[in-house]
Amino acid sequence: MTALSLGRGCPEPAFSSAGPGRVRGYLHGIKHVACASTVAVLVIGLSVASLTRADAPRRPTLESIGDQVMCLCGCVATINHCPHRDCATVAEMRPVIAQEIAAGKDETTILQDLAIRYGVQVLAAPPAHGFSLTAWILPSIGLLAGLSFVVAVARRWRKPRPALASVPDKALDPKLLAAVEEEIKASRMTTRD
Q1: Which residues is 69 bridged to in the sheet?
Q2: Which residues contact 58 (CB under 8 A, 6 or more apart)?
C-alpha cells in the first residue's frame, strides 16, 4: 500500500497493529477535529479582530452616542429608544452628552466619561478589553461547544446498534423445543375453534 492509499490523501502508518479500517476511522475522526478546530479559531479570531479594528475617527453626534448609551430608568433601552415620554435619565444624560460634543471630544472619550460618571452598565456594549472581553468571546465558545455536542449525539444515534447474540440451535434442549412447538400448535387449534 502506498502512503496515499486511504483515499483522501492521508498517509497510512507504516507499521500499525490496528487493521486498515481502524486506521481509516481514526484518521477520519482526526480530520473532523482538525476542521472543527480550524473553524473555531477563525470564528474567534474574526470576532476579536472586528472588535479591535480601528475605525476612522468621525465626529460624534447626539444620535450616534445615544444609540450606544443605555437608559438607566429600568426600561432596558438606549436613551434614543427609551419608551418613557418624560424620562428623567434621558433628560439628564442628553445635556451632558451635548456638552461633551460641544467640547470637541471624540466618541470614545465621551463614552469613557459617561462610564466613569454613571458606571460601565451605561454602555450598550461592554468594552472589548480586559475582563469584559469575555462577554464577547464566551458566546462563540458556547455556540461551538453546543454544536459539537449536538453533532456527537447525532453521530451516536446514527451508529447501528450491535445485533444481539443469537443462541445456536445446538444449545437448545430438543425436548424443550418440542414442548414449545407442541404448545404453539395447541394454542393455534384452540383459537381457531
Answers
A1: 123
A2: 64, 107
Q: Count of domains in the chain?
A: 1
pLDDT tens digits for 78-113?
Answer: 999 999 888 999 999 999 999 999 999 999 899 999
Residue type, 9: G
List the grid coordinates of 174: 430438543
Q: Is residue 119, in this structure, part of any structural domain at all?
A: yes
Query: For residues 51 and 49, what is the distance between their CA atoms, to the nearest angstrom?
Result: 5
Measured CA to CA in angstroms, residue 48 lies from 14, 44, 70, 144 at distances of 42, 6, 23, 16
The end-to-end CA distance of the chain, in Å, is 69
CA dihedral (62, 64, 65, 69) positive or negative: positive
Specify if 190 maps to a domain.
Answer: no
Which 8-state DSSP code applies to residue 171?
A: G
Asked if 111 and 55 touch (Cβ cutoff 8 Å), the reply is no
Gap between the Cα atoms of 107 and 88, Å rounded: 23
Give the pTM. 0.44
